[in-house]
UniProtKB/TrEMBL annotation:
Residues 6-287 form the Aspartate/glutamate/uridylate kinase domain. NCBIfam families: arcC, PRK12352.1. The gene is arcC. This is Carbamate kinase. It comes from Paenibacillus puldeungensis. The keyword GTP-binding does not apply. It holds the Pfam family AA_kinase. GO terms for molecular function: carbamate kinase activity.
């Protein structure tokens, strides 16, 4: 048995795409190459890891491409679009991480696992979509789409209007035993985009459903299941803040469960962005008070693991 610390890393949108470039596959690959330099450094510092990534922009574009081409080829169902997003994002990560590791004389195998995540059909999220996907639109374009396609459209953090889809809670990772078997000598990219959402039928069969699961909650469930020491959520900001984006912003180096609950009640964390990250971190340390969660940026990941920066969330 290895005595290395085990980390589950959740990669945010900025690890896959630059805000300034066209959202092409080529542009994504360039960003992912840089992301993988950081991940290779973490691996090189002596951690075992699994990687979970987001897919909101990507799955939205795949769905849109299918809709646009519907007169030529039959459109793919939503769950299949989720699986396709896992495939191509995983491929970019696999290729880039393999290279970044080889530059450091490390030949750790990297593999992407198409991963299904069981959700409950009765999850209230199916009646109230919250997950923004795909491209941004103007308000006029968004109302047009809402009328023509019946989609729920919402303004997304001052950046434009986006389609919202249901985001039910992840309940069970179908391929978890395969992840555990691979863990010791392989870096597994799993639960991508929160996992392909599936519901379980009374006879035990699984069936894809239209949803996008939150990848931070999925990463948390994975961290519990593999008994990870650390859940590391990598996003754009170095630290979680209270009074974020105000002249009184205060960056936090540490939050206990009690403090985090208080800050949530006071409304410091934006719904759909920082709130699920803090909630996922809290769930992990509540599940096992010996463990910790870290929220930080990709380029500060190593410093945060050394306790020099980031926001650490612990039980007390
Ligand atoms: N209290 C807060 N502290 C820090 N960042 C916050 C806070 N509230 C909202 N944010 C914003 O949330 C963003 C992270 O959410 P998001 O971009 O949706 O995540 P992801 O990296 O998973 O794509 C941060 O980059 C920051 O702009
Ligand atoms: N599935 C998911 O949470 O994707 P984003 O992080 O891109 O929103």
């Amino acid at each position: 048995m290895s005595n290395k610390q085990k980390i589950v890393i959740a990669l945010g949108g900025n690890a896959l795409q630059s805000k300034n470039d066209e959202p092409t596959a080529e542009a994504q690959l360039e960003v992912v190459k840089k992301t993988c330099e950081h991940i290779a450094e973490i691996s090189n510092s002596g951690y075992e890891m699994a990687i979970v990534h987001g897919n909101g922009p990507q799955v939205g574009r795949i769905v849109l491409a299918c809709e646009t081409a519907r007169d030529v080829v039959p459109p793919m169902p939503f769950d299949v679009c989720g699986a396709m997003s896992q495939g191509y994002i995983g491929y970019h990560l696999q290729q880039s991480l393999r290279y970044a590791l080889s530059k450091r004389n490390r030949n750790v195998p990297v593999v992407t696992l198409a991963t299904q995540m069981v959700v409950e059909r009765a999850d209230p999220a199916f009646k109230a979509p919250t997950k923004p996907i795909g491209p941004f639109y103007t308000e006029d374009e968004a109302s047009d789409i809402a009328v023509k396609k019946g989609y729920v459209m919402k303004e997304d953090a001052g950046r434009g209007w986006r389609r919202l889809v249901a985001s039910p809670l992840p309940r069970r990772i179908v391929e978890i035993s395969a992840v555990k078997k691979l863990w010791n000598d392989t870096i597994v990219i799993t639960c991508g985009g929160g996992g392909i959402p599936v519901a379980e039928n009374p006879d035990g069969t699984l069936e894809g459903v239209a949803a996008v699961i939150d990848k931070d909650f999925a990463a948390e469930l994975l961290a519990e299941q593999v008994d990870a020491d650390i859940l590391m959520i990598l996003t754009e900001v170095e630290k979680v803040a209270i009074r974020f984006n105000t002249p009184e912003q205060k960056n936090l180096s540490h939050m206990s469960l009690t403090e985090a609950s208080q800050y949530i009640d006071e409304g410091h964390f934006a719904v759909g962005s920082m709130l699920p990250k803090v909630q996922a971190a809290m769930k992990f340390v509540r599940y096992n008070p010996e463990k910790k969660a870290i929220i930080t940026s990709l380029d500060k990941a190593i410093d945060a693991l050394e306790g020099k920066t980031g926001t650490e969330i612990t039980f007390s």
